[in-house]
Amino acid sequence: MSVKQQKTAPPAPGIDDRITQLERKIRAASAQRTLYSGVLASKLGMHQTDLECLFIITLGENVTPGQLASETGLTTGAITGVVDRIERAGYIRRQRDPADRRRLFLEPVPERIEEIRAINRRAYKPWMEELARYSEAELEILLDFADRNYQAAVQATIALRREIS
């Protein structure tokens, strides 16, 4: 009489496996967001780098060209060209710092930014529906992760640009 072999469950993934899975999924999502950004920039008649810099400007407060250069790792000369193009397109205004007339702030033009946000709301609707499935506590963890992930990405970009220079 033969004995039926009992299948054993595969071992549960360890933390290193989970981190590898998460890193792969983040890279895949990042690649898709990069592709999306290229399509959106094209739709708006902008360079993709200009659009990404515009996003950084809209996410900050009192962003200066120097800060933008630092965060992106672009030279101050390159940032001047980026800012000029974004301003000509009507998405930002240069505002002098009232406390220091030599310093400029890059101020988003709300009506123009809303045009981009309207496009993004339509495109991101399924993603927002997925996020709505999470509890408030889970969203706090995701927010913490997103913030740390962003800061790490900024540092990695700056470090890689320095290696190239």
From TrEMBL:
Highest taxon in the source lineage: Bacteria
InterPro entries (alphabetical): HTH_MarR-typ, MarR/SlyA-like, WH-like_DNA-bd_sf, WH_DNA-bd_sf
HTH marR-type domain segment(s): 12-151
Name used for this protein in its record: MarR family transcriptional regulator
Species this protein is from: Hoeflea ulvae
